[in-house]
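Q: Could you write out the predicted structure for this multi-component system? I'm mainly interested in how the pieces pack against one another.
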Amino acid sequence: MMRAPIFGRLTGSEEILLPVRPLYIAITLFVAMMINLLPVTGWVLALRPDFVALVLLYWGIYQPRKVGFLPAFLLGLAMDVADGSLLGQHALAYSVMMYAAIFLHRRVSMFDMRHQILHVLPILLMMQLIVLGVRHAAGGEFPGWGYFLTSITGALLWPATDLLLKMPLRQRIDPDEA
Amino acid sequence: MEYTPPPFFRRGPSLLARLGFFAILSLILLYADARFHYMEAIRKAIAVVLYPFQELADTPGQAASRIGSFFVSQSYLQRENDRLSHENFLHAGQLQSQQALIAENQHLRQLLEMQERMEQTSTVAEILYVGRDAFSRKVIIDRGSSQGIEEGAAVIDDTGLIGQVTRTFPWTAEVALISDREQVVPAQVVRNGLRAVVFGIGYDGALDLRFMPVNADIENGDVLVTSGIDGVYPPGLPVAVVSNIERNAAYPFAKITCTPSAGPNRNRQVLVMSRLAPLPDYPVPLEAKKGKAKKPRKGG
């Protein structure tokens, strides 16, 4: 029997990483926005997760002191303009998502990747539900169940997001060996 | 949230207060945008900031298609060349007869003292990307107000009507497709001149022809063109072909589905027509005018 550590299971999050600089967070958010702006259509568009939401959620959970509501709100406005949707729907959804991320950050980072996915999925679904609710109030129609696929792909990409965003933060030289 | 930090660890307002601030701010924005369309200035400002990034994001796709088009086979080019020269030949014939027709039409219109038809100018634009909003059908094109694109202008491709410019930004414009739920196109059946209204239903490849009586003279395969009575779309642009008719005497209207003639999935190049000359004002009935002059008294 494996002895479980007292403070949650031993996961990747417990290795010692370089401190996250705000510039790095800004760059990752910018790259996520660029991916969102890529001109894709058809199936790719139907399955493509909202990368801005994913990266915002990631930093909200792992660096809640360094990202706040302001970047979420501003990026939301940018996505609204780029998508040609109602101004403020993504801003509202990202703000509520950021609240959920910061509220749950201690809890989520205790779990391993598989269980983190189970936390991320409802948060992403909730974000989409907010957008849906806003559009309903403005007279929109339900766009079909496929609308929620992007949350599922987003949640499934959570481990990859974790891996990619942590890569530049790994220490080059292992301090234990030096 | 789960604990209150001692005063020397102050972090500003609480999490819930910050959420409340931003949620209320976005709700105000939403309400002002949805109800009063007050937010166009802010939207334009953000669009200008976003434009270089949009162009940058578009570059890989453009480069890929350019490289792809460089490596096409000789036989494909040969075939395309043949087809184009054949089409060119056909069009040249049509164009020659059309010039005679235009002259004749002008002459007849003068004889009948009818209004001149506006010569329309048009701008070639390219579709930058398809709108990602799941609730509407829109595309973004790479020409904007600085190139003379106006809101309300009709957008066509080589096969027919695509949609209408709904928002202009300095270098880009947003085109609502005719398949958008909120787009309505006044149309006319080519075969018998019957006027109808084509509604978008929110997804590609199908349009609704609503409010046609069950016994209306419409057949499968009827071509619908814009009627031009709305003063927005120029008359005679192909809109759709009737594909399915359900006549059920239990309902007042027949259920008619059509297939759009054009589609933004086909090619990236589109043509933005200039706005039509504004139609003369709707004539006010004489009684209404009188009513305005003399306040109608209620009761007696």
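A: Regarding packing and overall arrangement: The mean pLDDT of chain B is 84.
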